[in-house]
Amino acid sequence: MTLLGIDYGTREVGIAISEGELARGIAEYATPESLDRLVLLCKKEHITDVIIGLPEGFIRTQAKHFGEALAKFIPARIIFWDETLTTQKAQQQLINSDYGQHRIHKKRHQVAAALILQSYIDETKKTSR
Prior knowledge:
Layout: E1 3-8, E2 12-18, E3 24-30, H1 31-45, E4 49-54, H2 59-71, E5 77-82, H3 86-96, H4 101-127
Parallel strand pairs: 1-4, 4-5
Antiparallel strand pairs: 1-2, 2-3
Helix pairs in contact: 3-4
């Protein structure tokens, strides 16, 4: 089972993947081109489940529409997952690891996607015991 995590943003979409118990960030795509790139990635990696973070506020609706659009092109199950403050947590992790400001901006959605996916993995592991 291969899982894909998505941190949806108005400018960038962060991507993480997991083939076991650990999520790892793999990419950030510009939002306008992300749907096409994700369809290709899901097919190439045989993704079974896509976990899309649902943020607070106005962007929540945009993230849901994005997930619904993706579902039309892939056979994977789409799961929406609470991601409140995940991007801020990701940014703080990067700051704490001494990344430069430019590198933080380039990686924060990727790290947020990994946090979202890891949260999902951890929670489903707890409930399956």
